[in-house]
Write a structure and sequence with these properties.
CATH class of one domain: Mainly Alpha
Order of helices and strands: HHHHHHHHHHHHHHHHHHHHHHHH
Strand content: under 5%
Number of helices: 24
Shape: globular
Largest sheet: none
CATH topology of one domain: Arc Repressor Mutant, subunit A
Structural class: mainly alpha
Helix content: over 70%
CATH architecture of one domain: Orthogonal Bundle
Radius of gyration: 24 Å
Number of strands: 0
């Protein structure tokens, strides 16, 4: 029954997962300590952790840890430490202790070749790192975790972590890299439903921000339907946020009041500060509907100009140009112009048009130009000048030589190269040329 609980969870059916988990504990409740009983306790801890029931996740997890130590069972100890660690990691007051527990879980798994448990530790640390906006930490963990799983043919875990990598690239502005991953993953017929939710929302959100002609509503609707079936906010909120953003862009309502109210009721009871704050922000932006949260993440506190500009600084530090643009757009005319330039650089044509319309309504006449056709013609949205610089990089020229060729300063060349690195997701001149050649941007 404990194993069936896990299988049904993987299939996205939360109700059956919970039913079998409860039955497993009920059968063993009056029995002495055993491996089966300890694992049943840890399984319940895992389900509560996944649902953001922090107190319950820790309660069942600590019971499992105590029994695992009593039985001297490293595998169950490894599993339970992972659950408690993930709960604590996503709680601001205990983030560091949570990471410590997750690393202990990983060490036990690696030492004993518990491959599935190691994969889960990598996945939870990477996923929670993204949630916490600690993108450098998440990137490092996911790279190691994906390699670990690929070498051992742990395909489901590889796919899940790749969907997280796509989410990471998406959040930090590398939309082409994110699309490349999700377009590959979406072709896999037996993709886990819990992974498919993230894949669909990332793909749909990039398409709608760019203003591409593809209809994203079927993707968003499928993601939301599967998400609500899981009854987990970490699945529901990304799908709802994407739909709310689509409502904001189009000016039309697509989400039923029933679904909105269901999400609100959950957010007001459970969840973490990061996801809940993002949902509250988009609910207000799209529908002017406010909800009260006990805690609010500073990045989404954009309800007045002062707080919005503080949020913009935070997002710039995190490397999230899109969120930075949204925050800046709440500021002065100059801030709005900076915001529209940022979305221009990201290739977010639909957002550019939306912001341009709102600026004109407010009486602003001098608005930066939109994305040039030459910029839109290449997959990385490089500007004409960046293409010129890239071509000269291919020829092996140094910054001063490039500056002389293009009649610009070496410092300006340096800025262009930094932008090229960011858009191509590379860290060297040689890799930039190699990636641009692969993407057929240059020949």
């Amino acid at each position: 029954m404990r194993f069936l609980s896990r299988i049904w969870w993987l299939n996205g059916n939360r109700k059956k997962a919970e039913d079998y988990a409860a039955k497993a504990i009920e059968v063993l409740e009056q029995q002495p300590s055993s491996r089966a009983k300890a694992m049943a306790l840890s399984n319940m801890s895992q389900l509560e952790m996944l649902s953001d029931h922090a107190a319950k996740g820790i309660f069942w997890g600590e019971k499992a840890i105590a029994m695992a130590k009593e039985l001297n069972d490293d595998e169950i100890l490894c599993h339970a430490l992972n659950n408690v660690g993930d709960v604590q990691m996503r709680t601001p007051s205990s983030t560091e202790s949570g990471i410590t527990l997750l690393q202990q879980s990983l060490e036990i798994a690696l030492k004993n070749s518990f491959h599935e448990h190691a994969a889960r530790a990598y996945t939870n640390m990477g996923s929670s790192g993204i949630t916490l906006k600690d993108y450098a930490f998440a990137k490092e963990i996911l790279e190691v975790g994906i390699q670990y799983c690929e070498e051992r043919d742990l395909d489901s875990w590889t796919g899940y972590m790749l969907s997280d990598k796509a989410r990471l690239l998406f959040k930090t502005g590398n939309w082409n890299g994110a699309l490349q991953i999700v377009n590959d993953l979406i072709k896999i017929e037996d993709q886990l439903p819990i992974a498919r939710i993230g894949i669909l929302t990332v793909k749909a959100t990039i398409i709608m921000r760019r203003g591409d002609e593809e209809d994203v509503l079927p993707l968003l609707t499928e993601a939301a339907n599967v998400a609500f079936e899981t009854k987990e906010l970490q699945r529901i909120i990304p799908a709802m946020v994407a739909l709310l953003e689509y409502e904001w862009i189009t000016g039309k309502k697509f989400i039923t009041d029933e679904d909105v109210n269901c999400a609100i009721a959950m957010v007001e009871q459970i969840g973490n500060i990061y996801d809940n704050s993002e949902f509250a922000y988009w609910l207000f932006k799209a529908r002017k509907q406010q909800i009260k949260l006990n805690e609010f993440y500073d990045g989404y506190n954009m309800y007045n100009k002062t707080n919005a500009l503080k949020s913009a600084v935070l997002w710039r530090q995190k490397g999230c140009a899109y969120e930075q643009a949204l925050a800046l757009f709440e500021g002065s005319e100059e801030d709005k112009k900076t915001a529209i330039e940022l979305v221009h650089n990201l290739g977010a044509e639909a957002i550019y048009e939306k912001m341009k319309f709102e600026m004109r309504l407010s009486g602003i006449k001098s608005i930066p130009r939109g994305i040039r056709k030459s910029t839109m013609a290449n997959p990385a949205n490089l500007t004409e000048r960046e293409l010129d610089v890239l071509q000269l990089l291919k020829e092996g020229l140094q910054n001063k030589e490039i500056a002389n060729k293009l009649f610009i300063s070496p410092k300006t060349v340096d800025h262009h190269i930094s932008s090229i690195f960011f858009k191509l997701d590379v860290n060297s001149r040689a890799k930039a040329v190699q990636e641009a050649t692969r993407m057929e941007i240059i020949k």
